[in-house]
Amino acid sequence: MSPTTAPATTSHRGHPAAPPHWNLEPLTATIGAVIHGADLGEVSRDDEQFAALHQLLLTHKVLFFRDQPMTRGEHVALAERFGPLEDHPVAPSDPDHPGLVRIYKDVDSPPDRYENAYHSDGSWRAEPAMGSILRCVECPPVGGDTIWVDMVRAYADLPAGIKAQLAGLHARHSIEATFGAVLPAERRRGLAATYPDAEHPVVRTHPETGEQILYVNSFTTHFVDFHTPERVRHGADFTQVAPALLTYLQNRATIPDYQVRFRWQPGSVAIWDNRSTQHYAVMDYWPGRRRMERAGIRGDRPF
Predict the structure, then answer these.
(1) Which of 131, 134, 215, 222 is 20 to 30 A distant from 167 in Cα terms?
(2) pLDDT score of 282
(3) Residues that are catalytic
């Protein structure tokens, strides 16, 4: 089905269809769709268009747009329709638009790798981000794609025996062990004091759709309640089985069947549901320059 003929659709919950001038191009059967014909600056000011956008996001988990001329103010206004914005303790925000985080990779800065992992934004927070809106300001001539992963399907496809092991299990998520690892010890400890490790269910429930989501990623360090009589008979059951199970679950995000990959262009925008997805910023473009601006939307405590 070509993007010029694809009809606007209703969500799986029967909410109103998207505006007739929007054309939907699904990229996989379960995750990712390009919306053609939408002006996100207009969406930021229009209740009906935003309602349609919100429902399509719940259905497709990540939405893509090309050639968006929206201003930074419109970018922030659109994100704030979902909820208040959050700052980031490491990445700087635009000085005139608090909450609009600048993810700038320039040719004169070292090729660090902190984006280069499958993750869910801010899972190290007690209340991780609900979602994000990311706009490409400048991209390298080659490389610099982003991959998103459907963690609903990653959980659904687990063997029944593994699902049984995960019932009621919780895990720790840490900024100290990730972003903080490259900092001097004093700053790392200060970061940990301000953002202590968060504890979340390994399988969370989507608060709007009710879907079950596998919720471990590169910020996850260990299970906090694995060491029970039902799971542990000998020390090796804890020291070997628990880390192996966590690694297995983290690697679910690397399975191509659950992924969608997007090639950036200046003016491209991605909006994703951070609760049901992970993403991976591919750093294969050095020494090219990549400049992105992201508005992260505050979420609630996973359950």
Answers:
(1) 131
(2) 93
(3) 119, 121, 279, 294
